[in-house]
Fold this protein.
Amino acid sequence: MYRNKTRISKKTWNRPIIGIAFLFSLLITLPGMAQPSLPGLSFEIKKPKAFEARELPSEKTGNKKFTAPRRFYNNLVSRFNYYFNANTKLNEAIEQAKLVYRDDYTQLLNFYNYTLDETAKGQMDTIIYKCVAGILLHDLRSDWVDKLYLLMGKTYLYRKDFDSAGTVFQYINYAFSPKDNGYDIPIGSNASNTNGIFTIATRENPGTWKKLTSFPPSRNESFLWQVRNYIEKDELVEAEGLLELIRTDPNFPERLRVDLHETTAYLKYKQHSYEKAADELILALGNATDHFEKARWEFLAGQMFQLAKNDAKAILLYERAILHTTDPLMEVYARMNIVGLATTGENNAIQKNLDELIKMAKKDKYETNRDIIYYAAAKLELKRKNYIEAQKHLLNSIKYSVDNPLQKQLSFLLLGDMNYPLKNYAFSHRFYDSIQTSLLLKEDKIRVEERKPALKIISENQETIYREDSLQKIALLPPEQRDLFLNDLLKRLRKEKGLKDLPQENLSFGNTLAGNTGLQAAELFSSNGSEFYFQSASTRARGLAEFKSKWGNRPNVDNWRRQSAVNSSFATASPGPADKNLTATIKKDVEPELTIASLSKNIPLTTGQSDSSHKAIIKALMENAATFQNQLEDYPSAIETYEELLRRYPESSEIEPALFNLAYCYKKTGNQLKTDSLTAAIKQAFPKGTYVNKINTAQENLSRKKTDPAQKEYENIYSMFLEGNFEKAKQAKLKADKEFGKNYWTPQLLYIESIYYIRQKDDSIAINRLESIQTLFPK
C-alpha cells in the first residue's frame, strides 16, 4: 500500500479507457459525477504586500458555476502539472531509499525494505510545495484536491514529520466526509447511520459506470495512512483502535481490503504478535511491487511463524520465498532456516539443502556470493557435527571472499569458534589471529580478544609438548630402527627440496647413539679373528642394518628385485599418521644442510637431554593449566591438564602447586568432594608447604567471617539490594557504615547502590558512588 498506491497505476491511468476525445465529452456531459463541491473549504493565506488584492483561484471557489469546461481544465492541470510530478518525486525518494537499504537475513527483517530516515532525505519540501500549489492555484471543487491532500500527508510521514501528517489525514477525514446539503454530519454518530448501520467510512458506489468515469475518494484511504502514522509514532493503542473501527465498518470499500491486511500486519509486527502478523502479511502479498518484494515478505512471514513456533508454516513460507526470490542470499538463508526447523528426517533435509547450496556455488550467476554460500554450507555441516567438511567449506568461503571483508571475518570467526571446543587450540589461535576485530559485533569482538592471548600461550605450549614427546619416542627406538627412520626422512626431505641423495659413504648408521659418532662401519666379510661371519651376532646385526638401509624392508619372497613387488611392499609399509607426525617434528628444526647429524641433534639420547625434554613438558603443562584456569576460566580443561601433569610426572617439583590449583578448579566446578580430598592430600604430602599455610589462612578467614557481626550485617544488606528492597537496604547500609566503618563488602555494595541510582536516573549520585570505589579501593 505504502509504495505502489502512491503511483498512478495502469488501471487508474486508463480511466476512462476510451481516449482523450471521449474523456473531454464525458466530462462535459457528466458534471454530477465529480467530487462534490466543498463550500466549507477555505484558507487564510498571508500574501506579500504587492499581491494582497489578488485572489487565488482557490479563493474564487463558489464565485462561478463549476461548469464542465472549468472542471475539465482544473482536473487536467491539477492532475498532470502537480499531482503527477509530486507523486513521481515521492516514488523516486522511496526507490532511492530501497536502493540504499540492505537486509540482514540472520535477523528478523524490517517490515519494509526502506527506512524513513532515508526517505526523509528526498525532495520532500518540493513535493509538499507542489501539493500546496496544486490546491491553492485551482478551484477547490476539483476532483484532485483530496488526492493532493493525501499525497501531502504521505510526504509528511515519509519526512518523519508525524504531527503534520496526522493533522493532514485528520483534515481529510473532516473536510471530505459525507455532507447533508452542504452541512457536516457528525462522524460515527447516530446521525451518520445508514439503515441503522454504524459507520465512519465513506460509502463508495460499486457500479461499473461509476468506476469508469471517476476516481475513488481518498478519505477511506486516509484512515489507513492515519493508522500507519500512529504506528510510526509508536502510538499502538490508538492505531489498533482506529484499525478495529475500519475493520468492522460495513462501508469500508473492498478495493482497500488488501491495504487493510498490510496495515494490520505492520501493527501486529510492531506489537510482536508474530503469528497474527504473518497471517495478515500473507493476505497482503498482492501489494508487493515485484517478485523480490513478494519473496521478501514471504521470508519475513516465515521468520515470524518461526518465532511463533509454527514450524510447518515457517518451512512452507521459506520454500515459497526460495521459488520467488531473485536474491541468492535470501535463498541461502531460507534453506538454512528450513534445515534448522526440520524435525523429521533431519539428516535428509540437511543433505538435500547442502546439495542445493553446492550446486548454487558452482553456477556462474552466484559467483559473487560463493563466500556466503560456502559459509551457509559449513553451518549446515556443523548441525550434524561434520567438522571436517565444515572446515573445508569455511576455507572455501575465505578463498572466494573478494569484496566482502565482513563475510571473511565471519568465516575466520566460525573456524576459530569451531576449533576451540574441539581443543584444537593451535588452529583456533591462527584463525582468531586472522580476524579484523573492528568489523565484528561487540560480543564477538570481546570473545576473540579475550581468547587470543591465552590461545597463543596454549598453542605454543602444546607444540612444545608434542615436539618433546615425539623426540622422546624417536629416542626410545632401537638404534637400527632409529637410523632407518632418519635415513628415510632424510631422503624425503632432500627430495622435497630438489636435492640429490647423499653418497652412501656419508650415511653413517648407529651414529645417533651416544658416544658412537664418527665411527666407520666395519667391512662385513673382513677377517675378524677366527669367528665366522654368520656365527658373529654383532656382525650379522650390522649386516642386516646395511641391507635395510639400501633396500628397505624387503618381503621374504622370491624375485624381490622386481619393481612391482617392490612397489607393493612399500605401499603396505607406508608411514602411518604417527610416522608423519614424527617427520613434522624432526623437520621443524632441521638445519640448512640436510644430514643425518642435523636431523638427530635434538633427539634426547643423553640423560641431560632427556631431563631437559621432560622439564620443558612439565613447564608447558603448568602454563597451559594456569592459562585455562586464570585467563579463560575453562576449569574442566584446567582440571584435565593438571591431572595429566600429575599422572605423567608424580615426582615433579610442581606437584604441590598443581594439587592446590586442581582443588581450586574442582571447587569452581562445584565438586566439593574432590576439593576436600585434594586439600587433605596436600596437607598430608606437604605439611609445612607454602600452600598448606594458604589453605589454613583461608579457612580461618572463612570461619572468622561467619562469626563477624559486620560481615553478617553487610551480607544481609547485599541480599536486600539483590531483592530490590533498595530504600530499606540504603538505610541499613548507612547504619552499618556508621557502626563498622570501611568493610570488605563496601565495594560491592557501592557498586550495586550505583546501579540502583542509575535506574532511578540519579546519574550524579551514581557517578559519585563509582568514583568512591576507585578512590577507596584502588586495588
Remarks:
- The CA atoms of residues 412 and 431 lie 5 Å apart.
- Confidence is low (pLDDT under 50) at residues 1-40, 508-522, 560-580.
